[in-house]
Specification:
eight-stranded mixed beta sheet; 192 residues; 30% strand; UDP N-Acetylglucosamine Acyltransferase, domain 1; alpha/beta; 4 helices; globular; five-stranded parallel beta sheet
Length: 192
């Protein structure tokens, strides 16, 4: 029921204001007052979405949570991002017209949960594929296609994405300029 109400709320807000709406709820119904999801974002399988607070999900994203999707605290998902937890492209080719009525497991069907660690950034036009686990503090650059395990603090770029750096190098320079922010940074970066 919550999924239906949230979908209608986003549609109504989109129709009236086309602006961000603060305040979602997690799976237990607890409020997430600092989380924002754009009204133009499409969420499929919303019951499988495990959402933390301080999350930003921008305009025109496709988010598939049917096989389970965890989005950690402080994650930013920009615009035109696709996150998929399943893919039927092989199955439908193999089964043809019988795909829709096929009983039992579908050959070639890919399904797996996705997890995005706290304070990660997902750049525009990126694709996060089924079964991916993104660590904390990761930056996924624009147009990246991410599959598999991504270590904490990695900078990922390309199709198929590969690690091109570590965010802690630039973070260290910024923290040297703003030492008063170190406690805030270490509160999440050093958490288990």
């Amino acid at each position: 029921m919550r999924a239906v109400l949230n979908r209608w709320r986003r549609r109504l807000w989109h129709a009236l204001f086309y602006r961000m709406v603060f305040g979602e709820c997690d799976r237990q119904g607890r409020p997430l007052p600092h989380t924002r999801i754009a009204p133009s974002t499409c969420i499929e399988g919303e019951a499988g979405l495990d959402l933390a607070d301080h999350v930003f999900i921008g305009q025109f994203n496709f988010i598939d949570a049917t096989a389970g999707l965890h989005i950690g605290e402080g994650v930013q998902i920009t615009n035109f991002v696709s996150i998929v937890t399943h893919s039927s492209h092989r199955s439908i080719r193999l089964l043809g017209r019988s795909y829709a009525g096929h009983e039992g497991p579908k050959p070639g069907y890919v399904s797996g949960p996705v997890s995005i660690g706290p304070y990660s950034f997902i750049g525009p036009h990126s694709l996060i594929e089924a079964g991916t686990r993104i660590g904390k503090g990761v930056v996924v650059c624009a147009h990246a296609q991410v599959r598999g395990e991504v270590p904490d603090f990695a900078i990922m770029a390309g199709v198929h994405a590969r690690q091109i750096g570590d965010v802690r190098e630039k973070d260290a320079r910024l923290l040297a300029q703003h030492p008063e922010l170190r406690p805030h940074y270490e509160a999440w970066a050093n958490a288990a």
